[in-house]
């Protein structure tokens, strides 16, 4: 009986890790962090990973940025033990044939959720090096904040296909448009939940991030990682989705991987 209770608790923790709740700008509502996107070919996003609990349930997205490190949202892994999560890659089907990696260390940003919704980013150190191939590659992280209002970006993930649905079986992609910080703050009525470490991008009404997309990669036309999905108003209601801005966290990422020696 105790073992059964333990399994239930772990499954519930894994489910909650993928949810980030946020009020609508004018009415109450809920979020997490693709809805309205298109299935992409295997290898089209070779950096994409699925963060899963030990039972193989998809919790969040993530992205390969180094031979032994994956980047995701801290809200996906906060409170979880490294033995209870795994990183799945080299696939477009999160529950299909894939390579699985165990976790050596979980490194959330030291100021995660201080205040709430801020610094939602974490590094995952894998137990072994990534085995690169045609469908498994790392991605360059953006070091400069040079995005322009209206610039086209691409989000990939296995998030729910509708607000009450299940995680998509196949990896999907959606085109989003970068929203300048001032415009995004106005949309969210100057909410304190937005700061310089955030980036906003919006799709058409009926298209956007949804539950299970948290931690997933936002990529620019140069193939650089510019954002990690954090929060928003689910799913596809026309409000900007909010991401951790990679250029803002670039030095933290590099120094953490290099053992505090920034280059």
From TrEMBL:
<dbReference type="GO" id="GO:0016485">
    <property type="term" value="P:protein processing"/>
</dbReference>
<keyword id="KW-0720">Serine protease</keyword>
<dbReference type="InterPro" id="IPR001314">
    <property type="entry name" value="Peptidase_S1A"/>
</dbReference>
<dbReference type="Pfam" id="PF00089">
    <property type="entry name" value="Trypsin"/>
</dbReference>
<keyword id="KW-0865">Zymogen</keyword>
<dbReference type="GO" id="GO:0004252">
    <property type="term" value="F:serine-type endopeptidase activity"/>
</dbReference>
<feature type="signal peptide">
    <location>
        <begin position="1"/>
        <end position="17"/>
    </location>
</feature>
<keyword id="KW-0378">Hydrolase</keyword>
<dbReference type="InterPro" id="IPR050430">
    <property type="entry name" value="Peptidase_S1"/>
</dbReference>
<dbReference type="InterPro" id="IPR009003">
    <property type="entry name" value="Peptidase_S1_PA"/>
</dbReference>
<comment type="similarity">
    <text>Belongs to the peptidase S1 family.</text>
</comment>
<dbReference type="GO" id="GO:0005576">
    <property type="term" value="C:extracellular region"/>
</dbReference>
<keyword id="KW-1015">Disulfide bond</keyword>
<keyword id="KW-0964">Secreted</keyword>
<dbReference type="InterPro" id="IPR001254">
    <property type="entry name" value="Trypsin_dom"/>
</dbReference>
<protein>
    <submittedName>
        <fullName>Chymotrypsin-2</fullName>
    </submittedName>
</protein>
<keyword id="KW-0645">Protease</keyword>
<keyword id="KW-0732">Signal</keyword>
<dbReference type="InterPro" id="IPR043504">
    <property type="entry name" value="Peptidase_S1_PA_chymotrypsin"/>
</dbReference>
<feature type="domain" description="Peptidase S1">
    <location>
        <begin position="34"/>
        <end position="258"/>
    </location>
</feature>
